[in-house]
Amino acid sequence: MTLSIFGYRGYSANLMFNTIKKDILNKNISILKKIKLWRKGFSATRATIYNINPANCHLQMSDFDYFKLHPINGKYSRWIDDKLLIKYILSPFSEYLPKYFFQIREGEILKLPDCPNDITTDLEGITKLLKREKILALKKISGSLGKGFYKIKIDNGIVINDKTIISDNLNDFIKNLNEYLITEFLISHGKIRKIYSKTANTLRVLIIKDKNKKPQITGNFMRYGTKYSGLEENSAAGTIFAKVDIEKGIVIDPKRVINNKIERLEFHPDTKENLKIIIPYWKEIKEVLLNISEYIPQLEYMGFDIIITDNSFKIIEINSLSSLSFLPYYFPHFQDKYSKEFFIRKFKENPKKYKRILKILEKESKNKELFS
After folding, report:
1. Are 183 and 98 in contact (CB under 8 A)?
2. In terms of domains, do 193 and 306 share one?
3. Residue 60 near residue 332 (C-beta atoms within 8 A)
4. Taking the model in full, what pTM does it have?
5. pLDDT band, residue 310 (cuts 50/70/90)
């Protein structure tokens, strides 16, 4: 059944529903302010936490207008929403993707291209591979934000997400999985691991490819997990996020959200390590991602999630509707000329649907009346 709410359908309706639900549960914002912000298209929680106000709102994309844009990449969104499909599509760039060993589909174990020839397609084969690799990752073919992710390793027995199980239970565990991938487990670069080793600490890079133009990086940020955020580094609460200078790859201005308020940081609160590093392989990362964007020009809007390793980097996910939390805080959608022109074109493709936002963007007042 497709969810429909306020004219939004499917995934957009889910985003809308969850945003309003989160706002309703936020007791720190008055109901009058919530309603006022909703009427202007903004999440009250996001606007309050990230200080969207009359002085800067003309630079920010409203939540509800952004949700309407899904799928920004049209029918080609499925290319990157499916982690298995993107493995085959980006085969010329396979060195920048994790190794894919198995697919699990309704109890059936299917061998994937990176699986060694001597590994069989059964539980024994998975166990043999696990003993060889020491640690493996299991993740859903479709999905984001690390939901449904498992880490499985050998350590005085078989350990799944830090919980030891007996070998017989592994068979039951595998049988209960459906539409999962078994891939190599990636360990982050020593410089990043030193800051915090409990999470992968991913880099997000947003690339826009407007019509008949060269693709451009229009924003990025670095994430670090903390004890407060737990193993889910993608959780906004307690996760450290920091701007990355597009030209030089320098991590700057790190922050985290605690109790719905932004806290400035210089050092990691748990390890006391300096958060402001230079991203390893930054020049190569930019070059490869821009090459990928030109290789698949049908995809105009991609948020790459990257784990930087000791020897290179790996793309673990590509998002077709990058989150509105961390990235636009540092790189507002309408601040960058290239990004703004891209979105105006998108809005103009359906002027009735985006009448309000087009009117605002075209005003000389630059949208300052939005919160008045």
Report:
1. yes
2. yes
3. yes
4. 0.91
5. very high
